[in-house]
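Hello Y.,

Per our agreement to keep a running log of every chain we model this quarter, I'm adding this entry. I've kept the format consistent with earlier entries: sequence first, then predicted structure.
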Amino acid sequence: MSYPPLDQPEIGDGTATQIAEGIFWLRMPMGGSLEAINLWALADGDGWTIVDTGLRTTETSAAWRKAFETTLGGRPVRRIIVTHLHPDHSGMAGWLAQKQPARLWMTRLEYLTLRVLASYTGQEAPDEAIRFYRSAGWDEDALDHYRARFGDFGKMLYPLPASFHALDDGQRIMIGDREWVVVIGKGHSPEHALLHCPEAKLLISGDQVLPQISSNVSVQPLQPEADPLTDWLETLDRVRQRVPNDVLILPSHGRPFHGLHERIEALIEGHEAALVRLLELLGTPGRAVDVFPALFKRQIDRKLLGLATGESLAHLACLRTRKLVADEVDSAGIRWWRALKEEGAPHPM
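Predicted structure for the entry above:
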């Protein structure tokens, strides 16, 4: 992997770094350890196509107003592409669509799932979700905290446009005078869109391929029997096969970088190593919250509990798909996982 000598744009002041002719890199504020999200402005005729939008905050809307005056030069936004449903990517889509003559473009499953999650705002946590986290080993204090925060997802979003243009795998989109090809990824979110421009040798990778961290891959209460880690690993392999190694990757977090295939190999190897550690730990049966030491180097506090639990369940489900572990629910509703010790059982890798 290598990083080209590009100046990082300031966070939230509307300025941008030019990546190539007509392609600009902006950063919008997030707070927390990630600090910022990268957004992309692509020249599109007499206007712009925007890729991803930032969180719904007053700071982000102020940053967009500055961007309209500076980077975008007063030219209209014609199209808003959202790579996937998470609020740092989709949060300002409704706001932009109101301010500009712009159509929202997303994959069908991302758009529909986003509408479902946004609809939870103001509702009580469903019993199914409480049972889901209780079965993973959460105590009553953790469940009360979840109940109190349930529905916060929708607070990070402006109301979505009532219609959208669906993106599909392999679809070819003309943006300005360049053709971009949609590559669909799974695992981090249901139907994540990556954008590959063969002519410019660019890949807008969203959260599917990041330079320094691995995407969160989680099982959620909405689909409790899912196996998103297998989906994610298979997607990485497909991206490696379909996108050449000479692209410059434009990720949602961190700096643009070269070395797509090397990064994909490192991500796959890292998760396979985690699966080996997890399988060894399950020589003694455990709950999802008991396997954190096999997957995470830092202590998991209340703030990280939901992400860590979802990620642990994703790794456990992957091992179950490979027929290396079994799970069963006891009379108290707690799900226990154990390694299978059959002769000739396949290694995780």
